[in-house]
Design a protein that fits this description.
This protein is mainly β. The chain has one domain: Jelly Rolls (Sandwich), CATH 2.60.120.560. The protein is built from 2 helices and 14 strands, in the order αβαβββββββββββββ. The protein has helices spanning 2-23, 52-55, and strands at residues 31-32, 59-66, 69-76, 84-95, 112-120, 128-133, 136-141, 146-147, 150-151, 159-167, 170-175, 180-185, 195-200, 204-214. The longest helix has 22 residues, at 2-23. It starts with a helix and ends in a 9-residue tail after the last strand.
Amino acid sequence: MGGSLARIRKAKRRAGNLIRGMRSVVIERKINVFWSGDYRLGEPVYEFPNDVYLRDGGFEVDLVTYDGKMRLTRTPIPAIKKLYESTKKWANETIQPAAQGKNILAGVASKKFDLTAVFDLTGATARQIEFKVANKTIIYDIENKKLMGKSLKPDAENRLKIRMLVDWSQLEVFAAGGVFSYSQQFAFKPDDDSLILSTNGGEVKLIALELNEVARTWPGKAK
């Protein structure tokens, strides 16, 4: 019981410091900030080594006209680029089913990254595009034009741009300039930092992929 109370007090102090810090900031643009989450007593308490969403503002929100309608968009703030510590790029690749053994992300191990991928769906024989981040799978259904089960059409050139922001136990997915926005606190397996990009049912052309490793921002060592 004593350990649980200590964790609660620590969480309250951190929340109080966050609120006081935000009060001292003059906000000149519309942003969205989230808290990393609450845990029930008895559950493990994790350190969030980056929390870029909190420390540097979070996500910008805006209104745009999309498919003839006004839509709210949500995208990571540009300041996240200041946290990039390394960058890897790929271009003009053919993405195939995992069973064929080709994974362009093989050898890339990361738990905290900002990834953007652009696909040309013209002539694609694949039914689905599949990203696997440790034990989490993100799927775009080419046949039904759905990303993670939600309707999402490619652009006028039949291209699809997907952005993923992963920070240990947080997953953010964006598309269509932020019209599509998905946020989930997810328990990635602590000992798995693998990344896989593959398809189901055929091939698809990858125009470009950029993966930026995100540096730690908070002082001290992650636990």
